[in-house]
């Protein structure tokens, strides 16, 4: 038994909060991996005689991916920091 009678709800809420941050952190890691794979592909794939990474639209898509990934990473850091400061 965890805690006293009726105390299970607090235990559940504490684990759910940290679990959400953990899932978000894993998702950011996967997004980072996708960005790295996409960047490598853009350097290797040749179209019209040059790597597709030289095309402006491909560069814009990669830049948007990078910004989204980094902003997500910062949001996870903020959520983890807030959870550390006040776990309730």
CATH superfamily: Butyryl-CoA Dehydrogenase, subunit A, domain 3
Under CATH, the topology can be stated as: Butyryl-CoA Dehydrogenase, subunit A, domain 3
Largest sheet data: 2 strands, antiparallel
Number of domains: 1
In which order are the strands of the major sheet placed? 1-2
Radius of gyration: 20 Å
Structural class: mainly alpha
Q: Could you give the distance between the termini?
A: 20 Å
Number of strands: 2
Coarse morphology: rod-shaped
Unreliable spans: none
The percentage of residues in β strands lies in under 5%
Name the CATH class.
Answer: Mainly Alpha
Second-tier CATH architecture: Up-down Bundle
**Helical percent range?**
over 70%
- The helix tally amounts to 2
Mean pLDDT figure:
92
- Could you give the order of the helices and strands? HEEH
Which features characterize this protein?
single chain, 88 residues, mainly alpha, Butyryl-CoA Dehydrogenase, subunit A, domain 3, two-stranded antiparallel sheet, 2 helices, 5% strand, rod-shaped
């Amino acid at each position: 038994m965890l805690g006293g009678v009726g105390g299970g709800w607090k235990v559940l809420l504490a684990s759910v909060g940290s679990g959400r941050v953990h899932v978000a952190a894993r998702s950011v890691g996967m997004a980072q991996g996708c960005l790295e794979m996409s960047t490598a592909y853009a350097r290797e794939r040749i179209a019209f005689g040059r790597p597709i990474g030289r095309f402006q639209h491909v560069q814009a898509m990669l830049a948007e991916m990078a910004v989204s990934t980094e902003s997500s990473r910062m949001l996870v850091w903020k959520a983890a920091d807030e959870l550390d400061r006040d776990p309730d």
